[in-house]
From TrEMBL:
Biased composition (Polar residues): 217-231
A Pfam cross-reference name: TetR_N
Chain ranges of the HTH tetR-type domain: 23-82
Source organism superkingdom: Bacteria
DNA-binding span(s): 45-64
UniProt entry keywords in alphabetical sequence: DNA-binding, Transcription, Transcription regulation
Molecular function in Gene Ontology: DNA-binding transcription factor activity; transcription cis-regulatory region binding
Native species: Paractinoplanes atraurantiacus
Transcription regulation is among the record's keywords: yes
Residue span of region Disordered: 1-22, 202-231
Protein name: DNA-binding transcriptional regulator, AcrR family
Keyword set includes Transcription regulation: yes
Family annotation (SUPFAM superfamilies): Homeodomain-like (SSF46689), Tetracyclin repressor-like, C-terminal domain (SSF48498)
Amino acid sequence: MSSGKEPAPGSTGSAPSIRRDAERNRQQILTTAREIFARQGLNVGLNEIARHAGVGVATVYRRFPDKEALIAAVLRDDIAALAVRTEDALRADSAWEGLTQLLHAVARSQIENRGLWETITGAGHGQELTARLRTTIGVHVRELIERAQQEGTLRAGVSIGDLLMILLMVGEVASSSEAVCPGAYHRYFDLLLESLRADASKPALPPGMSESDASLIMQSRAQGRSRPASS
């Protein structure tokens, strides 16, 4: 493992060697941060990341000017993969199939990649990434909802706010049950998704919350605190 000490300018180390050391440190920081963010979320400090990576915190700052830059570098591939999944969903044989496959992928992130989930919900760090996700992926999800309702597979009145709340419910089940019964949340997610299927025998849905309210609730929950009650 690297000592984390990079030769200072003007030292006797050759330029190629210095560049190799710098790149090795950068990759070690990224690998470590990716593992820690996925497991613990984005609130982990740079000092802890540096310690686990075996480098000095000054080395982290030389490679990444601030924590937001490190988060962006770590999550770039994850966000790109989610964008590809969203585009694949639009090309599915039916909008229902595409929508449910995408929702399953997002639900898995709550268990497999806590940092990505916090970015999706906007829980503190990575706000620029959150805004980008909502601008690009949100547009496609709304399109999937509209197309599924037009093809008669998705219940009328279902909105993106409803989907956000369902993801939150599934996340609660997953976080509570994963240690005891790994993967059990899939069953309950499927049951919830079935309730969204269009069926003439189902009664009209009562009014739901707005997308902005649903987003605020998800953000507050992801931050580990409840939203204050309004006076």
